Every structure is written in structure tokens, then in C-alpha cells.
Amino acid sequence: MAGLGSIHVLVVDDNAHMRSIVVAILRGIGIGTVKEACDGADAFEVMRAGVPDVVICDLNMDPIDGLDFSKMVRTAADSPFPFVPIIMMTGHTERSKVEAVRDAGVNEFLAKPISARTLMDRIIAVIDRPRPFIKTASYVGPCRRRTNPKDFAGPWRRKTDDPEAEKAKLAANKTEKAET
Amino acid sequence: MAYALSISETPEIFPRSFMLQQKIGGKATSFITPELILLAEAILEQFMPPLQDQVKTRLKSISKLARERKENIRDEVWYHAHEVRGVAANAGFVNLGRIADLICKYLDNAPSDFKPDANLLTTVAVAALFTMQNENKDSAIGEELVRDCEIAIAIQLASERRV
To answer: How far apart are CA A101 and CA A91, in angstroms?
Structure first.
């Protein structure tokens, strides 16, 4: 079975109404399997029973909130699938929250009030625009750099980066551009 | 089967995976069409009036529970306020959400047998209801009510020595 019917989405929210809205939209557009969980711990159990293709999760949950849940999924030794794309929904759009969500290894951020269009956009993003997956001592999740500007000239932030090689590549690019 | 990632000092970079595109058999944009988005918007719209009714019912329950002075109502009141907060966020009722959040904060860290102040909760619940009904008409009233509720709850917390 191809198409959206082949997709399995897990919706995690401790607010029953919110959950029912997201589930209704997903089922309405033809997502094949939509499962629900009321908090991070419950979600982990549901994931163990069957790994979803996408997780849509709320930030404010009790006792395990969306940040802890994301970190668990990404780093726990018994995580069913650390690479699963996570879309985080929240009404908190302050910079500090957005950064915390990003640093927890979340793929996409969905600000409330959600609209069907923004929800669809985030689903499209995780399917059509996947990012490399990074694993470091301090971060596990999709690459936090969404753009790769050609004129980027550092600073180099990964231990594996080779600044000299990158500079040479950059210089070659510039020369090529000038020639064309 | 678990795919545990060991955390090491050496960064590892896994290339982009188009596994989901392969699974659905193409780009998501070819399946999630503008027509499908319109359908999703229509589904979302269907939820709005029932959501407002739910908010009203829950706010009434909050003040009723507080007035009845029954035992162990703290958790139930907190849950109603939490649900209102979530619904408000999704419905775009910013000030309603802030008032519901204040009720949650008033009850946070209180034991299950805590008896919340009936006057305070009834007043705040009425303010929340009024705010929801006027949210799209006059946000200044809502903002003023949020500030008043903040003050009322701060005073109550101080009087209960729970600051």
C-alpha cells in the first residue's frame, strides 16, 4: 500500500480534545494508522508495540513533558527508534522554548493554534526535506542547520570539520563562480 | 528491536534518509494536495463550536467543585483548568489560555486534599468565560482581566502562605 495510507503516526498529548482534533485531521486526510498516547511514558510504550513513522507531540505534558520524551526517544538505550521524526506542538513560542525544543532533537516545531495547513506543512517537511541525523556527546537529533550557505566561512563547530579543506573548497567555489 | 545510540565524543553524521518518501511512493506534496488541505481545514472547523462548549462546561465545573467544598477536588479542578488551557491554545484564545494557566499555577504544588478558595476560583472562572466570549472583539478587556486574575491569585497564594 503506497500513499499516505501507508504512514503510521503517533499523536502524544495529555489534552484529550487537542489529541482528538489532530487525530481527526490525520485520519481525515487518509493517514493509514494513527495511534494516541496521553503522555511521554505512555507514548514510549505505544512505540515499543509498533514504531511510528512520525511522532506528533505536545510540549506541555505531565509527568513526562515533550522535551524529556524527545530526549528519551533520541538517547535512551531501549529507544524503539531514535531516528523517528518528531513534530512538537506548543503554545509557547518564546525563543528560549524554541531553542530548547530544537536542542531536544525535535525535527519540526508547530505553534498553536495549529491550522490544518501548518500541520500538513510540517508533515511534508519531515517526509520531503529530511535532514542528516547528528549524534554527538551533547546532542542527538536532526542537523540543526537548516541551510547550507555556499559562502559560509566558519567558525567550524564540529570536531570532524577540516577548516583548511573547507576554505579550499570555498575558494574553489568562488573561482568557479567568477569564471562563469 | 532497539536501535540504541551510544553517546561518544566523536560526532557521527547519518546521511539524510528518504525512507518515508519511499514508503509512500513519492513526494509528500504529490499526496498532500491543496484540496486535501481544504478538507483538513474543514475537519478542524467542525471542532471549534464543540470546543467552546467544552470550555464553558469545564469552567462551570471548576467553580461548582470549589463551591461544593468536597474532599480531594484539587486534582479534578487542575485537570479541568489544564484542559481549558490546551483547548484555548488550539483555538487561539490567548487570554483564556493565560487565565487557565493561572488556575493551574494556583493549584500547582498543592496536595490532593487541598481545598481551593471558592470565591477566587468562581471569580476567575467567570473572568475566563467572559474573556473567551470577548476574545475576538476586544482583547484589551481580556488583557486587563488576565492582569486582575494574576493579582487575585498572587494575593491568595500569599494569604495561604504558598508563595
So the answer is: 12
A180 with A124, same domain: the answer is no
* Torsions phi, psi for A85 (to 5 deg): -65, 135
Whether the Cβ atoms of residue B120 and residue B114 lie closer than 8 Å to each other: no
Q: Are residues A87 and A29 in the same domain?
A: yes
Residues A67 and A108 placed together within one structural domain of the fold: yes
Q: Which ipTM score applies to this complex?
A: 0.77
CATH of the domain at A82: 3.40.50.2300
Per-residue pLDDT of chain A (180 residues; tens, 9 = 90+): 679 999 999 999 988 888 999 999 999 999 999 999 998 889 999 999 999 999 999 998 878 889 999 999 999 998 999 999 999 998 777 888 889 999 999 999 998 888 899 999 999 999 999 999 999 888 999 998 877 666 666 666 665 667 677 677 777 877 877 777
Same-domain check for residues A50 and A126 = yes
Residues of A in contact with B16 (CB under 8 A): 130-132
Angle between helices B74-91 and B34-68 (to 10 degrees): 150
Residue B92 sits at the chain A interface (C-beta within 8 Å) = yes
CB-CB: which of A7, A112, A115 is closest to B24? Answer: A7
- Global pTM exceeds 0.90: no
Range of the domain at A168: 149-180
Our count of domains for chain A comes to 2
DSSP collapsed to 3 states, A23-52: HHHHHHCCCCEEEEECCHHHHHHHHHHCCC
**CB-based contact B20 A58, cutoff 8 Å:** no
Tell me, yes or no, if A97 comes closer than 8 A to chain B by beta carbon.
no
